[in-house]
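Can't attach files on this board, so I'm pasting raw text. These are the components:
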Amino acid sequence: MMRTIRKEHGNGGKQTYELIDNLFKPIFGSEILKSGDDSTVFSLNGMKVGISTDSFVVKPYFFKGGDIGKLSVCGTVNDLAVAGLEPKYITVSFIIEEGFSMDDLEKITKSMKKYADLAKVEVVAGDTKVVEKGAADGIFINTTGLGVARDTQKMPSISRIKGNQVVIVSGDIGRHGACIYSHNEDLGFEDRIESDCGLLLDVISELMQEVDVAYMKDLTRGGLATALNEIAQKSGFDIKVEEEKIPVADEVKALCDILGLDSYYLACEGRFVAIVNGDEKEKAIEILRKYNGFACEIGKVEESREKRVYLSTTFGGTRILDMLYYEMLPRIC
Amino acid sequence: MQTLEKVNTIINTIKNNIEKIGRQLRIIEVCGTHTVSIYRNGFHTLFKGYIDFISGPGCPVCVTHEGYIDNLIELAKMNHTIYTFGDLLKVPGKSMSLAEAKAKGAKIKIMYSPVDAVENIAEDEEAIIAAVGFETTVPAFALSLEKVLEKDLKNVKFACELKTIDQPLKILLKDHIKVDGLILPGHVATILGVDGFKFVEEFGIPSVISGFEKYDILLSLLSLTQSILDNDFTVKNEYKRVVKKEGNTVAIRYIERFFERTDAYFRGLGLIEGGGLRLKSEYSAFSIQLEYDYDSLSNSACRCADVLTGKLKPFECPLFERVCTPQTPKGACMVSQEGSCNAYFRFGKWK
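---
Top answer:
Structure tokens for the assembled complex are below.
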């Protein structure tokens, strides 16, 4: 049977990783690429710099709390920020379908400019392609960002994760995925759920000044569960989180109940997990709560090394919290 | 905190009941939504050594066989638009699933309600409503047919693969399975009522109708273990806020107005006499005739039938995790998110 790409290959879950690990990485063969994080940090003429790239295909282009332009800047900037980098420059590329509204394009571009300014990044290069009607769906945007290390002595790194460290989430989860779903499914929820799409620069900057953060990862496609699994896979340690502590807003819970979704897999676009030593957790949570009242400790890194994520349920049971296995969402980012 | 104390008291009472009974209990949860709730909430680890949960045949997606999917794909190739519930998309046909057919350009649309689907069908569309499910969803299909009749739509037909819950349960309890108790499906009971499950009492097995929240399941386990302890075979109702003794009489009337019993093929269990529902002959103009070759419908290596009858744990099936995964489901129990193999795969019951 002919092998074909299915939507699941792009949902940020297990099949996305299989595609990257089994096809892209072996062919490209780059040693740096094999480290495989959302941003790649490397030395260049004695400087620690990092680069990240991301494409955005979200539909609708405008949603409560953001738009594809804001998302395309925040997404790449946040990928750099969680790697301990200060974003400096960004490139933007557009693939636009013939017939796309010029007014919408202008609105999207102005939104990109607004968030680039807020992030203090300069747009330094770009590209535009227009394809015939039907060859793309409205507008696709790629952004690539370059950043420099904030503090070369305290760079967050997967290799700094060890047993008994604490896992903290920066706010309530699943808002972006729930927001996009509510727009797409026409359930009358459109004005109820605001995406968490936003910049993480300020909170991360303050956190890194005050706390020695072992590792950070922003939560995007595949949500909290997929991010935790990626951390477990790459660090080699098990992670155990507690159901009762994971913050989910009531309106997101309600949407999940109606549509049979799982909030642990819903995308976020302005949340991250931080892994810190136990003696620094109070300070870390205090800082994070200045920016989002839902920030809290959700679990810890275990000593065991099966590379699994476990969830302690409210009643005291335990289950595996795996990566996303199935297509749960429309295009979300 | 007070709630958690109460919860712990209930958990301890359940365990005490089982200790008095003096053996690990085999309890079958008939409905797939219960399966997911049990594993999602960690009941399988909470009562490890006390209760062995067995997943029953009550997941309508899981028991939908490949012949039905193949029929829908053929109809889509003939330029029909197929309206289906989303969770049917991944069910494997002989050569592909509806999701794969959709990726190849077949006109397949996801519906949340067949009534809404009928409201939105375009005049130039030749629409087919994929009618799948147990008694829970049948009234919705009845209502949508009523709407078709009201609007005098000539371009809408129903492809019926509807199932009844009583026949497969009777066969399971009579021939296949030894269990101490049953958790009965709350959604079906909403329609059929407590009376609709009275037949279970004849088998001399305690049972309880349960809701789907973790607290519902906990209280149902408390009730069920008490029944087992007392040798009480009366069907208990622990979903009283929704389920009435006589059920939803309006919905039952709708079912009886439009549908009649027929034989049905259950993936994993085979052809079951009276296990399905079809449109009555006076509505045959709205029904698509489906062609099945029953002999070709089983995967010899797949042990779903044994899983569905509690003879085998999912991870004991030779296909489990090796070739049968949620992305490449080979059998009934891996197809839907509510299938037992799927739940084992995702939530790790073997831990």
